[in-house]
From TrEMBL, chain A:
Coiled-coil ranges from the UniProt annotation: none
Domain HTH cro/C1-type: 7-62
Gene3D superfamilies with a match to the protein in the record: lambda repressor-like DNA-binding domains
GO molecular function, one term: DNA binding
SUPFAM superfamilies per record: lambda repressor-like DNA-binding domains
CDD domains: HTH_XRE
Domain named FH2: residues: 1-68
Matching InterPro entries: Cro/C1-type_HTH (IPR001387), FH2_Formin (IPR015425), Lambda_DNA-bd_dom_sf (IPR010982)
The name this protein goes by in its record: Helix-turn-helix transcriptional regulator
Automatic annotation (TrEMBL), chain B:
Family matches, as Pfam families: DUF2975
InterPro entries attached to this UniProt entry: DUF2975
Name by which UniProt lists this protein: DUF2975 domain-containing protein
High-level lineage: Bacteria, Pseudomonadati, Planctomycetota, Planctomycetia, Pirellulales
Cytoplasm in keyword set: no
Transmembrane segments: 12-34, 96-113, 140-159, 179-197
Entry keyword set: Membrane, Transmembrane, Transmembrane helix
Length: 68, 211
């Protein structure tokens, strides 16, 4: 898939830990880890909304399209 | 509390009995055939008879009128040769041939039941909607389909062999090429269901990886 997740970059920039973000977004640590490592198949708008709200960023900061 | 349904326990038991029963009976049959001297074995051949003379068979309707009796299609008959029949001369004799075909049938049966056993195991582990189960269902369907075709061809071939070994009176041994339509329908249904299962397991994987 050509969609890449750059969550770790944004988290590093905002100095947010995995546990804190999982708590704030309201998803499990395991699911956040799946998202961060790029193993997720899809992301719900509600999850994306909560992550953007927690990290004060835009969806484009987290998701990118890289043509293979 | 996630309690397992009673039907699952029954299913597990049935499949286990089938699995172990098959292994034990296969080993016992193999050892028995291998261990018994060829001249003490009773040699039999299953053939398919057609054009059976039914003149000796009679039936009467409730009103006393005679009813015609006919055999519908080839009838399964067993030709039992006397123990003294000299069948064990060649190096690759009938005993080895029986063991070979028995082994082949045993391997196919074991493979078939193994698929069922593995599917039941995934249900027991609360994770049946996986791609492996779709593959297993497909294997079961293909095995049934292969069995149906082999049965049709073997029926014709065995009748031919039987015809070359005996001279029948009152019936013919030239069997017809007939495939079991019911089995083929079941096999196709299982293969179609396996495709549905494959699609379902893919959707389930996507669902579980949607965050």
């Amino acid at each position: 898939m050509a969609i890449r997740i750059k969550l770790s970059n944004v988290m590093e920039r905002k100095d947010a830990s995995l546990t804190e973000l999982a708590d704030e977004v309201g998803i499990t640590l395991a699911n956040l880890s799946i998202l961060k490592t790029g193993k997720a198949k899809a992301i719900r708008f509600t999850t994306l909304d909560a992550i953007c709200r927690a990290l004060e960023c835009q969806p484009g900061d987290i998701l990118t399209f890289e043509d293979e | 509390m996630n309690r397992k349904p009673f039907s699952l326990s029954v299913l597990k038991l049935l499949v286990s009995v089938w699995w172990w029963g098959l292994i034990v009976s296969g080993i016992v049959a193999g050892l028995w055939i291998a261990g018994t001297p060829a001249d003490q074995l009773e040699w039999g051949l299953v053939g398919y008879a057609s054009d059976i003379d039914t003149s000796a068979l009679q039936a009467e309707g409730r009103d006393g009128q005679s009813v015609n009796v006919q055999f519908d299609g080839p009838a399964r008959i067993k030709l039992l040769f006397p123990n003294s029949t000299n069948v064990g001369n060649s190096h690759f004799g009938p005993k080895a041939m029986i063991l070979f075909f028995l082994g082949l049938a045993f391997a196919a049966c074991i493979y078939f039941v193994k698929q069922l056993r593995d599917i039941v195991r995934t249900i027991d582990q609360n994770d049946p909607f996986v791609a492996e189960n779709a593959r297993r269902m497909r294997t079961i369907g293909v095995l049934i389909l292969v069995f149906a075709f082999v049965k049709g061809i073997a029926q014709l071939a065995i009748s031919g062999i039987a015809d070359s070994m005996v001279t029948p009176t009152g019936f013919n041994l030239n069997g017809r090429l007939e495939f079991p339509v019911g089995l083929i329908a079941v096999a196709l249904a299982v293969i179609v269901l396996s495709e549905v299962f494959r699609h379902g397991s893919r959707m389930r994987e996507e669902q579980s990886l949607t965050i």
